[in-house]
């Protein structure tokens, strides 16, 4: 569960990115976070992942309180999240299997656990048989599936997808959306940042719109721009 | 999920990383080799200079003449007293007859000297000191021994040796220290560059919940392996270069005075020093370099 209570964020260069944001995302929800560039979407993601801290306000991420927790707890908080980026951010020198296994090793899983979990996750995202491929041997859609598999492999309670379809053609975008929807139906909370109107309108999920650092609308079954 | 990260995993990751980033690894090893070679060469030159000066020092001696009223037996009896004195390395008794022979060598054609009686000479001791810097005090101690009538010593030469050695060692130490600092700076920057190239990889690890130690340890092992590899390569290159220079000196005419220490006599010490330096440079460099990128 995520709770942002009256959150303000001002960067060192004086940019006021968030101006009193209140947001609650319950377990199992699928939420679109929409808004124009510079509206504060990325800052919300960075706050949730512990990359930046709020200037004022209180927040809670899956039982952790990033506004006043010790630095050593940040990795523990991040293990409850799976993050997907627009540019995939796969490690080019590692195979698909290695891209997933190092994430599992990072949280202390044994080799046996990785051998059991990775085939299951690859099957879930439709990448069976691609274990030994390097990222540059895969299409954009397949690379994004690897990124989704990496986000899922440690069984997080929430997936944060930062414009995951931004680099894909419409057909691949719908496939990725279907995959995220299926993951959500299995019980994982999904927070997806996007400004692709068609996707938002087509899936009819909760839509939180942000503009100039403030939430301007929050509707379940909503559309882009309300 | 139980925490089961172990040294084996970090080591295998570090080992794997050495080869998966081959070009940067090669650059780092080359840098370590170059720095160790420069420092090693300079140190070997300094060590050889020290050795040669030491040899020259050992040849330095002073003469203690025995009172003419002492019999041969009495004069010889002083040997143990002189040998016990502080800073005295070796005493050699020279009879007046031996002194005469020695004096006449090379002067055989001087007619006047042919009839020079041995009684003109005195029994004497040739005294070598352990530390040439304390020669004045040693001379005073020898003078104080009853039966020693006179002493001849070339203090200026002894002091000259001390001065030359002190200057040479001072210059060598300053240059080696400067080279070490420059080497550390260059190597740290090379490893920093290698780490910068992989900052994205580190950021991904951190975003997936990796702790700082999980990210750091493979880099530390990688640095250690690169440092050791650099040390081993530098050792064999140093050996080759040293042998080459020794061969050149041996063949050169007029260089008979130069006494070079054989590499084999120093090999273990050089190898250990290179290994420790490579280890410290590799581990230290990678630890310093990665610190900046852990703040994600």
Structure, described:
The complex is a heterodimer of chains A (226) and B (296). Helices cover 33% and strands 26% of the residues of chain A. Chain A has 226 residues and is of the alpha/beta class. Chain A has two domains: 1-80 and 159-165 and 189-226, 3-Layer(aba) Sandwich (Rossmann fold); 83-155, no CATH class. In chain A, the strands form two sheets. Chain A has a six-stranded mixed sheet, sandwiched between helices. In chain A, a hairpin with a 2-residue loop joins strand 8 and strand 9 (214-219). In chain A, helix 4 packs across helix 5 (140-152). The two termini of chain A are 24 Å apart. The model of chain A has no long low-confidence stretch (mean pLDDT 90). Chain B has 296 residues and is of the alpha+beta class. Chain B has two domains: 7-56 and 161-294, no CATH class; 61-153, Alpha-Beta Plaits. Helices cover 70% and strands 8% of the residues of chain B. Chain B is built from ten helices and four strands. Chain B has helices at 7-20, 22-59, 72-84, 96-104, 111-114, 135-143, 155-197, 199-207, 212-251, 263-291; strands at residues 61-66, 88-94, 124-129, 148-152. A four-stranded antiparallel sheet of chain B has the order 2-3-1-4. Chain B is elongated. The relative contact order of chain B is 0.16. At the A-B interface, helix 2 and helix 3 of A face helix 1 and helix 8 of B.
**So what's the overall shape of chain A?**
globular
Largest interface, Cβ cutoff 8 Å? A-B, 24 and 22 residues
User: If helices are DSSP runs of H or I spanning 4 or more residues, what is the number of helices of chain A?
Assistant: 7
State the CATH class of the largest domain in chain A: Alpha Beta
Provide the number of structural domains of chain A.
2
- Overall tally of structural domains of chain B: 2
Measured distance between first and last alpha carbons of chain A: 24 Å
Question: How much is the radius of gyration of chain B in Å?
Answer: 31 Å
Could you name the CATH topology of the largest domain in chain A?
Rossmann fold
Structural class of chain B: alpha+beta
Q: What does the largest sheet of chain A look like?
A: 6 strands, mixed
Radius of gyration of chain A: 17 Å
